[in-house]
C-alpha cells in the first residue's frame, strides 16, 4: 500500500501499519521513504528498538530469505541494504543517546574482503547506546589496519564482523596479527556475523561472540567485568 499520511482511523496512530510500511519500503529499496517513515514513527513516540526490530530487521531478513531462494538478485539486495542503513542513520542519534557515563571504547570493523556492514552498524549503534565510544574502521578492513588502530587508541573491546564463509578465516588471521604485534592482552576480542558460531570464536582465540547486537553489548560488559 502506498503511504498517504497517517491513517485517520478514530484519530489513532496505527503503529503496526506504519511499521509494515517501513518494511515494505525497505524491501522496495526506497531509502528516502524509509527515512521519512522512521522519523515519523519516532515523532509519534514509537520505541526505536521496535522500529528497528519490527520495521527494519524483519524486512532485511525477508530480503535474505528471498535472495537465498533465488527470488531476487544482488541489485535488489544492495538497494534494500542501502535503505536499511538509511533507516538506521535516523535511529542512530536516538539509540546512541545515553545518560550513562562512557563505559569503554570499542574498535569495530568488517574484515578484509567482506563488504557487509548492516550488522556491524547495528553493533556500533548498540554499543554507543550503552555508553561506549566506538571507533568504526568500516568494511574490508585488512589485518594491519586493525593492528595499527589498536596501537593508536586505548581500547576495551575489539569487534570483528564477517558474513561470508570465504571471509571467516580473516577473523582468525586478524586475531593472529594482533597476537603477533604483541597487542592481544590490550583488549577483549569479540567476533560475530551470521555464519560465526561461539565454538568457532573460541577455537580461533577470541574472548567472546554474540548472536546479535544487543547481546554483544551484554557479553562485552560481562567480559570486561571478569577482567577487572
Ligand atoms: C545485504 C547482503 C549483501 C549486501 C551487503 C550490503 C551492506 N551494505 O551490508 C551486498 C549486496 C553488497 C552483498 C554482497 C554479497 N553477498 Co551478501 N548478503 C546480504 C544479506 C541479504 C543480508 C546481510 C545483512 O545485512 N543481515 C542483517 C544483519 C542485521 O545481520 P548480521 O549481519 O548477521 O548482523 C547481526 C549479527 O550477526 C551480529 N553481528 C554482526 N557483526 C558482528 C560483530 C560482532 C563483534 C558481534 C559480537 C556480533 C555481530 O549482530 C548483528 C545485529 O544483530 C545476507 C543474507 C542473510 N540472511 O544474512 C547475504 C549473504 C551474507 N551474502 C552472501 C553472498 C554470497 C554475497 C556475495 C558473495 C554475492 C556475490 N555473488 O557477489 C557478495 C559478497 C560481497 C563482499 N565481498 O562482501 C551469502 C553468504 C553465504 C556464505 N555463507 O558465504 C548470504 C548469507 C546470502 C545467501 N544466503 O547466499 N550481500
Describe the structure in your own words.
With 228 residues, the chain is α/β, with parallel strands linked by helices. It folds into two domains: 82 residues, Methyltransferase, Methionine Synthase (B12-binding Domains), Chain A, domain 1, CATH 1.10.1240; 124 residues, Cobalamin-binding domain (Rossmann fold). 56% of the residues lie in helices and 11% in strands. The protein contains nine helices and five strands, in the order H-H-H-H-E-H-E-H-E-H-E-H-E-H. A five-stranded parallel beta sheet has the order 2-1-3-4-5, sandwiched between helices. The structure holds cobalamin (B12). The site of cobalamin (B12) has 38 residues, from helix 3, helix 4, helix 5, strand 3 and strand 4.
Which class of secondary structure composition applies to the elements?
Answer: alpha/beta
CATH superfamily of the largest domain: Cobalamin-binding domain
The strand count comes to 5
Count of all domains = 2
Features:
single chain, 228 residues, alpha/beta, five-stranded parallel beta sheet, 5 strands, globular, binds cobalamin
Amino acid at each position: 500500500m502506498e503511504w498517504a499520511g497517517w491513517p485517520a482511523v478514530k484519530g489513532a496512530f496505527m503503529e503496526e501499519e506504519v511499521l509494515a510500511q517501513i518494511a515494505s519500503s525497505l524491501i522496495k529499496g526506497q531509502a528516502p521513504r524509509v527515512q521519512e517513515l522512521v522519523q515519523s514513527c519516532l515523532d509519534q513516540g514509537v520505541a526505536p528498538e521496535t522500529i528497528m526490530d519490527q520495521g527494519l530487521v524483519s524486512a532485511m531478513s525477508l530480503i535474505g530469505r528471498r535472495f537465498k531462494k533465488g527470488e531476487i538478485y544482488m541489485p535488489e539486495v544492495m538497494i534494500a541494504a542501502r535503505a536499511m542503513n538509511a533507516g538506521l542513520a535516523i535511529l542512530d542519534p536516538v539509540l546512541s543517546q545515553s545518560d550513562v557515563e562512557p563505559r569503554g571504547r570499542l574498535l569495530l570493523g568488517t574484515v578484509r574482503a567482506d563488504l557487509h556492514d548492516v550488522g556491524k552498524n547495528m553493533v556500533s549503534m548498540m554499543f554507543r547506546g550503552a555508553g561506549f565510544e566506538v571507533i568504526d574502521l568500516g568494511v574490508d578492513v585488512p589485518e594491519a589496519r586493525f593492528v595499527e588502530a589498536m596501537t593508536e587508541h586505548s581500547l576495551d573491546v575489539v569487534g570483528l564482523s564477517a558474513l561470508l564463509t570465504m571471509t571467516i578465516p580473516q577473523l582468525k588471521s586478524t586475531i593472529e596479527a594482533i597476537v603477533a604485534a604483541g597487542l592481544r592482552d590490550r583488549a577483549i576480542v569479540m567476533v560475530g556475523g551470521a555464519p560465526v558460531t561461539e565454538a568457532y570464536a573460541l577455537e580461533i582465540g577470541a574472548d567472546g561472540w554474540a548472536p546479535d547486537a544487543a547481546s554483544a553489548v551484554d557479553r562485552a560488559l560481562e567480559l570486561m567485568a571478569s577482567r577487572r
